[in-house]
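Page 37, continued from 36.
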C-alpha cells in the first residue's frame, strides 16, 4: 500500500511540474499525530462517553484536512441519519464492528442550527433525519475504510458491542475551525 501511495505521489508531482503549476499550500506545516495521542483520545472517549473528538484540523492549501477519533458503544434506540453539506468523511475502522447505512435520500431531513456543536466545531453545515431510503448497507470491521462524500447521508443501524474509527474530514470550503 505504501508503494502505491509513493507511485501516486510521484505521478501527481510530475503532472504538477508538467503543467507548470505550483503547490496550493505555501509554507504550510505538516501535522504529526503519534499513536499514543490517538490512544489517549480513544481512552477519553470511552471514559467520558464523548463520541466524536477532533484531534487536528490543518490548513492544507485549498482545503482543510481534519483528523478525529470516534468511539461508539452498543447501539440502542433509533439513531439519526446525518449529512454534511460541504465536508466529506473517511472512516478507518480501528476496532470493533458496525452496520452503516449510506445514501442521499434522508427521511425527515432537518437542517442543524449554526450553534450546534457538530456544525460549529466538527463537520460544518448539514442536517439530520430519521432514516435513509434505498440506502447501501455497509458491514464495517477492523481495517475497513469507507469514504462518505459531502451530501451523502450516513446512519449506524447496528453496533453489537462497539466501533472505534479514525475519521479524516476533507473540508474544501474551510467551514471547520483549525485546531
Amino acid at each position: 500500500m505504501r508503494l502505491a501511495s509513493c507511485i501516486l505521489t510521484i505521478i501527481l508531482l510530475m503532472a504538477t511540474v508538467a503543467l507548470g503549476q505550483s503547490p496550493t499550500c505555501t509554507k504550510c506545516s505538516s501535522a504529526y499525530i503519534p499513536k499514543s495521542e490517538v490512544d489517549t483520545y480513544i481512552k477519553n472517549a470511552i471514559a467520558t462517553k464523548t463520541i466524536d473528538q477532533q484531534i487536528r484540523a490543518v490548513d492544507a492549501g485549498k482545503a482543510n484536512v481534519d483528523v478525529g477519533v470516534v468511539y461508539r458503544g452498543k447501539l440502542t434506540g433509533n439513531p439519526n441519519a446525518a449529512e454534511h453539506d460541504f465536508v466529506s468523511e473517511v472512516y478507518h475502522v480501528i476496532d470493533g464492528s458496525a452496520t452503516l447505512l449510506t445514501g442521499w435520500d434522508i427521511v425527515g431531513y432537518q437542517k442543524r442550527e449554526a450553534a450546534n456543536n457538530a456544525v460549529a466545531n466538527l463537520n460544518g453545515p448539514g442536517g439530520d433525519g430519521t432514516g435513509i431510503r434505498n440506502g447501501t448497507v455497509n458491514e464495517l470491521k477492523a481495517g475497513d475504510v469507507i469514504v462518505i462524500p459531502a451530501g451523502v447521508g450516513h446512519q449506524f443501524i447496528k453496533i453489537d458491542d462497539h466501533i472505534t474509527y479514525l475519521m479524516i474530514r476533507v473540508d474544501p470550503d474551510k467551514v471547520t475551525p483549525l485546531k
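Residues 12 and 113 are 39 Å apart (CA to CA). Flag for discussion at group meeting. The chain has a mean pLDDT of 90.
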